[in-house]
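User: Can you write out an input/output pair for a complex, sequences first and structure second?

Assistant: Here is one pair. Inputs:
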Amino acid sequence: MKFWSTLFVLSSSGLAGAFPALSASNLEGLTAEKVQSALETVAKYQNEKRLVVDITKPVQITGKYAFQAPGKSDQRGPCPGLNSLANHGYISHTGITSFTEVVTAINQGEMAHFSP
Amino acid sequence: MPTIYLEMPSVFWVCLYISTISHAVLTPIGDPRGLQGSHNWIESDSSLTRDDLYVTGNAWKMNMTLFRDIYDRADEDGVISMDLMADQAARRWAYSVAHNPNFYYGPVTGMVSRNAGYLFLQNLLSNHSAEHPNGLLTQDVFKKFFAVYEDANGNLEYREGHETIPENWYRRPIEYGLLSLNLDIVSWVLKHPELGRYVMYS
């Protein structure tokens, strides 16, 4: 309840200018259940993938992970970490990814550990 | 101005990052939405290499002047140290205070989230090879991750969206979790107390 009332107050208040992401249209679709399910998937992935990563080797950037410049229709955002993963095929080259794909890429691939 | 403090669980940071990306899948119609539009939620003002949203209107494309401002401060071995990064964080903060009347730097989106961007670069994107297990951020690694290409004459060119992973780049072997992040933030605030200030519409 606290979650929803806080969101309501923030999205309808004059703070929308400072926090455009909290305006009603941007929050559409975000629910506490989705956040919770995201956390659970991260936990599960961590359990499964932790043993697979070899940190003694440099990150592979050859073969299927070789650099490929983005094409006209490929999306790239402001984040160098995610862009480099997309350019190397760790997440979809189109730049449009799924939650499971990006968690796998960041955790297994190369950049961060996630722990719930 | 009233102080608004948002209570969030401890995994807020990563979870928010991922949930914004997941909008790309969960939105059945319309353009996929990524990190753009996340101002003062994930994206914040006074970034290392990006301009403030309400100053230039573009907070996602890199500004080469800002890139060079830190790139050129590397030491004689081309290394960008943690100290250098802390000083740059303070420098960029002061710049936003002076030039952005809509500068927002809050307790979470400012002190934590904005500085995390700098600290992620320093701690996650640096090269954790056997010689430097704590990570070494060199100009070369910095260039590669920030899509800056150097030609034979030493000229630097930014190619938007063309970020790369450097060769022989090793990931960080131990977690950089919220505890480590917060310890680093505290050490920066001790060095530059203004980074612990709350700024709204300076």
